[in-house]
Each structure stands twice: as C-alpha cells, then as structure tokens.
Amino acid sequence: MIENSGQCTALRHALVPGASEADLKAAFENSPTVTSPVDALREGAFAGVFTGTDVEAPFRATPGYTLHDAPGINIAYRANEALPADGIDEMWRQTYVDLTTPQGDLSDSVDGLSRWLVRNQPISLAVNTVGGDLTHARKLFEQTGQVVYTIGYEGNPALTVQARPQEGEVFGEFPVRRDLGKYTRYPVVVPSPTPAYNSTYEPSFLEEAARRAPPASLAYASTLLDLMKSPHSKGYCVLVMEYLADAVGVHRGDGSQTGGPNRTILFGLQRPPLGQQTFLRCGSSTTLDELAPTLIPFYVTNARDGLLVSVDSANASLLAHLRALNVLTVSEDAASFDTRCTSEEPYNVVPPEALADRNNHPDDLETFPLVGQFVSLYVPLGHVKSTQSDDQKFVEFFSASAKWLRLQNA
Fold it and tell me: Which residues pair with 267 in a beta bridge?
C-alpha cells in the first residue's frame, strides 16, 4: 500500500497481485460514515467517510473511477494491471484508491514500483509480507527514498502508515528529489526545531571549525580540506563531517513508553536509492570551495558509490583536484550534461548555482545553514518500522541493509 503526499494516513494506491476491482468494492462495503466533524468527534469515528457533498464533505466524481454504490459512501476506485501515470492527483481529503494488479514475476513489479515511487515521492509506503518473508519489503526500502515505511504481517497488517516522532518514527515531507528546490528550501522533518530552518552559522564559528582536523575516522578527508581556500567553506565542511560521524548508521527507536502500539522502529540517515545516481554539475568557473560542502556528504560516506561529478571541460583546475581525490568525474559541456540527465534519469541533479546550499556567491562563501538541514537536501532520512513489538528478525534483516548511510573508510 502506498500513501500519497500530504495524506500520510490515507490509502491512495495499492499494489496487490491477483486482486480485482470487486475486491476493492467488497473491502469498502461496510465503511463507517459520519455526517459532520462534530458527529465524528462524538462517535470516535476518526476513520469514517463523510456522507453528502456539502462544504463539510467535499467530494467530486472524477472520470475513469468507479463510484461505490453503497448509500452515503463517498469512495471511488479503479483497477489496472499498470501503475498509475506519473503525477497522480492525491485527491486531498477524498477517498480515492488506485489498485494495481500486476501479472508475472513479482520481482519485476517491485522494481517498477520502486521507480514509480522515486518519480512520484509519496511520503509513505506500507508493505504487507506473506509468510513473514521480508525480501521484497527490504528491496523496496533500498530502492526508494520515502520517509515512512511500515512492514506488516498476516494477523498484524500495516493498514496505515502513521508515525510517532517522539519514539524515533521520524517523518517529514520531501518533494521529488530532483524538484526539491522548486517547492522548498529544506525538506520538513519531524522532530526538528522550526528556528533551525532559518538559522546560519556565524563566520567566526566557521573560522574556528576550519582550524580543526576532520574526525579521526575521516582523516583521509584532510587532503580535500588542504586544497580549499575559503576558511568559512572549509570550516563548514568540518562541521558536516563531525555531524555525519555522529549521526550515520541505523538507530533503534523505542515505542514502549507513550501508550500506543509498541512497534519495532529503526531510523536514521540513508543513502539515495541504491542503483540510482546523484549528479553534481560544476560550471567553467566553479571552485572546490563552492563544490566541497555538497561533495562531503557523498565523499565521506557510502553514498559515494552513487555520485557523479560533471565538470565543464574548461574547468581544468577543478577537474585535476577531483581526479586527485579519486572522485568519479566526467568532463563535458552543458549540452552533453543535459543529454546525460535525460537519458540516465538520475535520482538528483544539483546545478552549479545550487552548490553550497544556494545561499552563497562565489565571492562570499560565508552563509551556511545548520548541518542537519543541509544534509537533508541530498540524502533520504526517516524510519522503517514493523507492526510487531520486539521484532528481532526485522531488526537484524533491515539493520544489515546497505541503504543506511555509513562512513567511508578511505
């Protein structure tokens, strides 16, 4: 089950091999209904469907969907072997469900669904396993960049994908990664302090950080720092490395203290979807000081495997630096880079003007955000949970995933 952006507890799309539109109709047959918000509160019907079509219960029929014929149930659905077209309308606060019923090898369906999830970026994904087999669930986790994942079992299914951030069930809202800059300055992550999104470091603080060596586990990054000229950019790179050294890896949440269902929770920073690349584009005059802050989250972690730095052919100095640092680099003009972006469909593309967080001019590399907000521009984060309490099989299997962001040893 996949839930769409902004409605993180409302089913919008389901992929169920062998299911039919008749199954959807039957599932919704006895849906609880309410006539007003007041009635919903009085009756405790928080999963009810509003009846009628007035201002309290807006519902519009959309061509191509079947309307449920039960009296007062404003629910629409449709079934297809193929996934919905990209750009699916979330049908805000209305009960619309697209059902995909694939044929053939389920592994192929998982791969196709993974690509669809990356292109459309719903907040959350629920996977209900068969016989406790977590293979497809982990593959979906590894090949996508959702914020909230819930894994269910027969007898204890994942019916929705709520999150309790106080327990480590980190959630947030991320646009499609390549389009993030069109909609927001930073992704919204909960829990996080609101002032953090508008905070920057004092230049003197960055200068002080520039005098420190990188964390001992990242000593090899001193070679990169030694090539930098701006003390502010250099100091910021040190701060990013210190943050990553402290934050990476898988973390265990605790769902036992707040009175809700005691779910098994893992959370943390993650690599971009495995098998997909991030392109950093550098122009003819881009300097290492401009590139380095954005390069660091990849250079010092296992996300390096999915990074390609594209450099304008005229920028010989930067090309030489990157090759000396063993960064995967390609020299090409702007037209060739545009062709690459179209043909290879990368996970993310960071243009020259967006390097160093879009805050800085090449002659004024002094304004940098808090490192947590900065890193969230480039790598996924969030949580994955099991509906079962103390699910050690889930913990061991998902903790071993290559998706979790970890430090690169050299």
Answer: 251, 383
